[in-house]
Amino acid sequence: MGTREYVFSWPTELRRQLIERASTVRWVSALVVGASVPLIGFTPFNHASDVLGVESYPWRVVVFPATLLTALSIGAALVAPRVPSVRLPRWLVAGWSLLLIGALLSLIDSDDVTRTLLLIYLAIVLPGAFVVSLNRSRLSAEPMVLGFLVVTSVLLLRADFVFFADYGFPEPSELFFAKFANAPYDFHYYALQNPGQTAAFLFLPLTLSWFCVSRPGLSKAARLVALTAGVVCFATMILLYLRHAILIATVVVCVAILLTRINGSVRVAGVAATVAVSALAMFGTGDARRYAGAINDLSPANSSLGTNRSSGANSFSGANSSAGTEEPSASVRLRSMAEGFKEFARHPVTGTGFGRYSGPDGNLPAHSSLPQAAAEMGVLGLAGAAILTAGLIGAAFRRLRSGALGGVAAAATFAGAVFALDLAVAGGANVGLSNDYVTVWGMSAALVLTIALSEPQAGSGEPERIGVAGSMTSPQSLGGG
After folding, report:
1. What is d(CA 189, CA 70) in angstroms, rounded to the nearest whole number?
2. Coil, strand, or helix at residue 420?
3. Cβ atoms of 125 and 62 closer than 8 Å
4. Which helix (H) or strand (E) segment is 66 a member of?
5. From CA 148, how far away is CA 37, in angstroms rounded?
């Protein structure tokens, strides 16, 4: 009888062990995926196009970091598929499809067909494949969030430490001046090309981290990770000194603090401290008040601190583009948006080519994802960008109405909405998906979007599902404990 029990019990034990090991492999794979995404935008990986020489050998794009990362996610979907599969939202499919068709049509008028094809592949095809494959895999959302936030924080802090090692800590009176000198790894660029696009990227980890902090039931370790990432991203946003970005970031942090379940007086103190720091940075220092004048006296060419080593071919910096002129930054942005729509009127069907529009003066993008998409990809690109923007913002409103605000999916939903809003009011080159061959924006948005789709929303019409592939109940996960 004992032998019979042994014979019939060992397959069950073996199956249990295999399931546990498979779960661990999926958890680690999800962590690697989340951690790999921000690496695409930072040194040395943002120099992949130069190292691989894709201008001369375009086929080498198959070994780009974004390509390898997408291949990993496709492998996860093939090896451990979610059954049954879940349809993506209609607005996402429609917006992405129109964007892709518009980009392909833009090849007709592009002045560099090879570069445009490469950008379509890197900035539209890969993020789309990334979303689809992750959504069809059994990888969990929470370790992806953990990897994304930890690596982003480490990269931002590394940028500061390298700056301190090279140039020392700036005196308070020199802080804002130093960060506009375009030095490698300085407070201004963080290897992400310009302040506007750096801010656009930071809105994803900033919002994700602060709304994860307010999540009920979060372990102390996970809450500390999220809070640290949130503080690092907010401090970096302050040092970028883009007033619209500081304002949006302040609203995000304050709302997240108010949603926490800590003592009411502590929440009020946290909101007051956040507002005070932002107000001091924008209006309370002599350096801040002299911001516009100082910016006009600086350029990468005459900087005493060095030059920007980012790999992008164009520098879409509001600071640099307005150097030598007294035109206010807001006026420059509004004018560039109007110029983008004027270009759209000249090429309403094909646009000028995806990634090929930088304004009549050669160095200004449209500073908004909508006129930028219109100028580069015509009416279909504009429609695609508008649908994606409305879809991301609409998803956040549905979350608010449903009251489901406590999970990582909710945090990612709000991150996507803030990202889309920033791109619409102040976005930069290539519709906020890439800057030249650096595609950290599109891939990060794809990751956050996948996490946002990991839980059903009330009234969304989506079928019930848990996690990207299932919510991990292990205490190792970001929400464990």
Report:
1. 26
2. helix
3. no
4. helix 65-79
5. 7
Beta carbons of 73 and 450 less than 8 angstroms apart: no
Cis peptide bond N-terminal to 84, omega within 30: yes
Residues 6 or more apart whose Cβ sits within 8 Å of residue 84: none
pLDDT in the model for residue 428? 52
Residue in the structure block whose two tokens are 């592949």? 121
φ and ψ of 357, to 5 deg: -95, 125
The Cα 37–Cα 443 span in angstroms is 6
DSSP string, 154-210: HHHHHHHHHHHHHH-PPPGGGHHHHHTS--TT-TTTTTSSSHHHHHHHHHHHHHHHH
Considering only CA atoms, which of 204, 194, 247, 261 is closest in space to residue 229?
204
The residues near 66 (Cβ < 8 Å, ≥ 6 apart) are 40, 122, 126, 439, 443
Instruction: Give per-residue pLDDT as tens, 200-252.
Output: 899 999 999 999 887 777 778 888 899 999 999 998 888 777 788 889 999 99
Q: Is residue 181 over pLDDT 70?
A: no
For 168-235, strand residue ranges (E) read none
pLDDT at site 170: 63
- Which residues on adjacent β-strands are paired with residue 209? none
pLDDT at residue 343 greater than cutoff 60 = yes
- Read off the pLDDT of each residue in 97-112 and give the average, rounded to a whole number: 93
DSSP state of 121: I
d(CA 478, CA 208): 12
Q: What is the signed CA dihedral for 421, 423, 425, 427, rounded to 10 degrees? A: 170
pLDDT at position 125 over 90? yes
Amino acid letter at 180?
Answer: F
| Kind and range of the H or E run holding 119 | helix 113-120
pLDDT of residue 13: 56
Query: What distances in angstroms separate CA 225 from CA 103, 192, 263, 386, one per listed residue?
Result: 39, 23, 21, 34
The percent of residues in the chain predicted with pLDDT above 70, rounded, is: 72
> Kind and range of the H or E element at 268?
helix 264-283
**CB-CB contact of 232 with 436 (8 Å):** no
Contacting residues for 266 by C-beta, under 8 A, at least 6 apart: none
The answer on pLDDT for 407 being more than 60 is yes
| Stated pTM of the model | 0.82
Model confidence pLDDT, tens digit, residues 2-13? 555 544 455 565
